[in-house]
Amino acid sequence: AISSAQSASTTISFTVSTTNPATRLRLAKNFWALQHWRGSTLLASKAVESWSIEPQLHSLTLAISGSLQAAGATTRLTVSFMPVYSAGALQLEVLSPSGFDFCGASATSPAAVVEREDCSSSPSKILLTTTITSGVQVSVKISDVVLSPTGGTTIVSVQTFDSSSAGYTREELEDLMVVFPGNLATTSQTLECLHAEDSTLYPVTYSFPARVDEQSWLETYFTLTQPAAAGDDLILVSDSEENLFDIDSSTFELKKVISSSSTQTISVVVSKTSSSNRLSVALGAALEAGQTYYLKCGVTPSGTGSASWTIQIDSGGVYPSNTNDAEDYGFVVVPQTDISVTVSRAPPTATVQVSLVLNTKATGFQQLIVPAGVLLPLGEGACAVGTNFVCTDVGTFRGRRVANLSGIDGADLPTGKSLLIKVTMPEVAE
Fold it and tell me: For a Cys staple, 155 with which of 67, 86, 95, 325, CB 3.0–4.6 Å?
């Protein structure tokens, strides 16, 4: 009601709070009608056409349902929604970022991809035929999708059509926003033995592979395609059926690489959720996209099997902000070989017999590196004394002679028994 008299030609403005209908209205019903009454007398009226109603797809989600999640990976997406109208086709188009590629994608039945001749010119778009029934939840799985190489905030347009010709839009929702993971790309992944840090103190063993039940050093360099904030969690996981690696949280290091000769340490706080094969640390500073970082941590292998290593940044979202998708770096771990060495005498330049006893089962051949200056007889099998094994000089390693020890005719080396070899002592001990 108008509270006071108004003169003719006065503009009266007011606001009405309303909710759009879920479906389109027939043209005859999509009007606003205004009537001016005085008591029971109609003084004036007017009808104006309303705005166009665009139905929304309810409960719309787009998720990575494949095992690979990192930016640039080829994986599976699942789109789900509750339609208002029945339809026969569905179209997805990634508006940003660039780099999505649906050209090689396939869909799980009953959905099917509609082939497009122009796919190479617009690879971020895909059209599928499928059964879409009003009020019935729809879920479509699309495999072999190449994700954007950057990850991050992703804007997607989802539309349904009455047929695959896409001639008539039934419903649509523009600008669905999801946040997909970036790529944590690792380089120079190494697993080095305990002595690797000091080649001067350990001139031979520093280059040996990691050994079972002995701490080793996991080292890698990595870059991110999405930035990480201070307080985000960096997570390191060794994943194998036997939990082959124990991670020592006290040895963890993270550094920003400034140049080939300069780094900057990034402080971290170890999380209480860490376990023997999982380490979670809170970042004390932000990490930049495109910047190289160095990670080092002590790990102890309990066996010689393989393990995949997950390195990712968790910022509290549905997905990690960056991940390496659990790569198996093919680290070599060998069992420890217990050996005892005895000699009755060792005068300078003399050829003497040395007794070796292996206390660990040794399959195949074992390489024996003798002390500096000690020589081995040349020729196949020449350094063996006895007939229960073969000893052959095979060259040098860092100036020291190397022999291959093996069983007879491919058999395993005898263990717990003395293996006698001939060596020639140097004139002066080195």
Answer: 95
CA distance 185 to 253: 18
The pair phi, psi for residue 361, each rounded to 5°, is -60, 125
Output the six-digit token pair for 349: 């330049």
Q: Are 194 and 128 contacting, i.e. CB atoms less than 8 angstroms apart?
A: no
Which two structure tokens, joined as six digits, stand for 392? Answer: 């052959």
Distance set, CA 37 to CA 2, 337, 351 (Å): 10, 103, 126
Residue 236 CB neighbour total at 10 angstroms: 22
Amino acid symbol at 128: L
Strand partners, 152: 180
Phi, psi of 410 (to 5 degrees): 85, 0
Residue 277, Cα to own-chain centre: how many angstroms?
A: 17
- What pLDDT digit, counting tens, does each position of 95-153 carry? 999 999 999 999 999 999 998 888 889 999 999 999 999 889 999 999 999 999 999 99
- What 252-256 contacts at long range (C-beta under 8 Å, 24+ apart), as own/partner pairs, is 252/279, 252/281, 252/295, 252/296, 252/297, 253/294, 253/295, 253/296, 253/297, 254/281, 254/283, 254/293, 254/294, 254/295, 255/293, 255/294, 256/287, 256/291, 256/292, 256/293, 256/294
- How does pLDDT run across 221-248, given as a tens digit for each residue? 999 999 999 999 999 999 887 778 999 9
